[in-house]
Q: What sequence folds into this?
């Protein structure tokens, strides 16, 4: 019984800690459109997970751990933040598959009400496999050098 109470307390504690962290949900659009989710993990640092259509033709899943580099106080309202971080990416589509590492760099602004805007770039480097006309080509590639605008609801 004692082990059960300890396990239940730990599960409840982790659940409360997870719901106490700020989160944001929205879209990220540029050369493609993605659903975007952010979850603060320590201080202002956050994990971002994006799922969407890269270049409107294949499904792309990317996750990054972003470090808040600076939060300058340019205005009296809202919060600015510069961030950057490493991550991974996985994409698949008709005849195309890619797997690689990603790096994200961006600038965000969070209003005094629960709206967040961001501009970022997330280049990805890794293995790309494409099939066309019955021939499969595998090469090392770099993709994702397009700026994106993010609009998220922060809760």
A:
């Amino acid at each position: 019984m004692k082990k059960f109470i300890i396990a239940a307390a730990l599960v409840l504690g982790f659940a409360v800690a997870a719901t106490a962290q700020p989160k944001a949900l929205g879209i990220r659009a540029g050369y493609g459109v993605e659903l975007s989710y952010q979850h603060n993990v320590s201080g202002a640092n956050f994990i971002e997970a994006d799922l969407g259509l890269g270049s409107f033709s294949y499904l792309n899943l990317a996750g990054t751990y972003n470090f808040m580099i600076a939060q300058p106080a340019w205005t009296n309202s809202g919060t600015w933040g510069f961030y950057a971080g490493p991550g991974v990416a996985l994409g698949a589509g008709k005849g195309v598959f890619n797997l690689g590492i990603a790096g994200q760099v961006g600038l965000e602004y969070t209003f005094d009400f629960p709206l967040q805007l961001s501009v970022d770039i997330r280049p990805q480097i890794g293995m790309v496999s494409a099939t066309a006309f019955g021939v499969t080509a595998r090469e090392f590639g770099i993709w994702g050098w397009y700026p994106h605008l993010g609009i998220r609801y922060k809760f």
